[in-house]
Amino acid sequence: MASNDLVHVVDDDVEVRKSLGFLLATADFAVRLYESASAFLATATGNLDGCIVTDVRMPGIDGIEFLRQLRSRGHSIPVIVMTGHADVALAVQAMKEGAADFIEKPFDDVILIDAIRSALGNRNQVHAAHPQSAEIRARLSTLSEREKQVLDGLVSGLPNKTIAYDLGISPRTVEIHRANVMSKMNASSLSHLVRMALIVESQA
What we know:
By secondary structure, the chain is α/β, with parallel strands linked by helices. It has 10 helices and 5 strands.
């Protein structure tokens, strides 16, 4: 097995660590488990192989600060952040701090494994230019004014109810607009949608 098949799991919940360790081992990944971001950073020297899967809410150094410290130390290892359903704002913040992806719990095992494989496959393109930015802009141009407002709310990390309140429409209408945005943007997930919006924003 190549060293780039290594997955570092960072989570303060011992049961989560064990279950993720078992899942990833059965998917043929090499796995290392850490009970905190501090424990990982204490051993992080030189070039880091593979990718990191971490919870966003942890005592001490949380997932967002963990990302910042990794980047400040010059580590470009891809990081996948796990979030609770109510943590959309934190997930968006994680993406802005350079997370490769975020996954909402509870998640399907296949979704996590696919996200890890994608992160590993794209890890050398972290700092590359985004050739798809023109395509993303073209998709954005197909959105209605209301759909753009809903997208802005999502990228700001706002839940549907808050977006609905701010726009003076019902949460159900927000859900419809959100589905239309996902379809027009060809987004496979909320993290994919946010990532596309951030690509364009970073090149504005």
